[in-house]
Amino acid sequence: MNKELLSMLAPKTQNLEKTSGNNDSITTEDINLMLSYSNLSKEEYNFLLMKFVSADTYRNSFVSEIAIRYIEKEEQVLDHSFINRLINLAVIECCEPKCVFCGGTGFITTINSKSVCPHCNEGIFNFTDHVREHLLKIDDFKKYKKVFRKLIDIINNIEMSALDKIGDT
Ligand SMILES: [Zn+2]
């Protein structure tokens, strides 16, 4: 199954764009059925719906599942709400890297000029450590770099496994 089909599960109000003609024969029931036969773990299921359907409820479940997994594994004690913020940022970097300044176009356009957007690389937002410090409201991201890398790896592995199981490779 192509992962793009998952967007059909989005609530109708969020999905005003007309779906392309060749998917018309597939219904949301078909997609739910395919998902139920895919043998996805709860994390993988929530990940797919979070990323491709973008419903906040799935995102919250996903973040807390990763938090539990991380907290169980690590000896290093970090504040729970900080871990949650860290995971949320990792999720954003993995799932929604589109630059908000230029809308993912890679260019800042004004009435009389068009210039390359300084915040991104061809529309993919450039998360520098400075940006991360700002988003996490901390002074020194370097301290958390290793933890963050690990979270990114966990999320990437879940995505790969999930896409593999639904047959989108
Ligand atoms: Zn940009």
What secondary-structure arrangement, pairings included, does this model have?
Elements: H1 28-36, H2 42-53, H3 56-73, H4 80-95, E1 107-109, E2 114-116, E3 120-121, E4 124-125, H5 129-136, H6 145-166
Antiparallel strand pairs: 1-2, 3-4
Helix pairs in contact: 2-3, 2-6, 3-4, 4-6
This protein binds zinc ion.
Q: What does this protein look like?
A:
There is one protein chain. The protein has 169 residues and is mainly alpha-helical. It has a domain at 38-96 and 139-166. 50% of the residues lie in helices and 6% in strands. The chain is built from six helices and four strands; from the N terminus they run ααααββββαα. It has helices at residues 28-36, 42-53, 56-73, 80-95, 129-136, 145-166, and strands at 107-109, 114-116, 120-121, 124-125. A hairpin with a 2-residue loop joins strand 3 and strand 4. The radius of gyration is 18 Å and the shape is flat. The relative contact order is 0.14. The mean pLDDT is 84. Zinc ion is lined by residues 99, 101-102, 106, 117, 119-120, 123.
